[in-house]
Write a structure and sequence with these properties.
The protein is mostly helical and 89 residues long. The protein has four helices and no strands.
Length: 89
């Protein structure tokens, strides 16, 4: 259930910032796990409720948005650098 809540949050951040990106299921799972670890929610009780409360708090909402946007920027940089191979024809 907490993954569903996080996916709703992720979609809201993407729509709010007009970011059009397609993430694979593995990438969605990765950002979900990294976010839980970053915010200290991994392995905790009632992760779903903790995510909802964090999203309702203006300070935490901003931190969550910043985390998601930074994660996506890193992903895009990695994708670009992996797509370019110098010297290969």
């Amino acid at each position: 259930m907490s993954r569903t809540i996080f996916m709703l949050i992720l979609n809201e951040v993407l729509n709010k910032n007009r970011i059009k990106i397609r993430l694979s299921e593995a990438e969605k799972d990765q950002i979900y796990r990294e976010a839980l670890n970053y915010f200290g929610l991994a392995g905790g009780l009632n992760i779903c409720e903790a995510l909802e409360r964090a999203w309702e708090d203006p300070y935490n909402k901003g931190r969550i948005e910043d985390f998601i946007i930074a994660w996506l920027k890193r992903k895009m940089k990695r994708s670009i650098s992996e797509g370019y191979r110098a010297g290969i024809i």
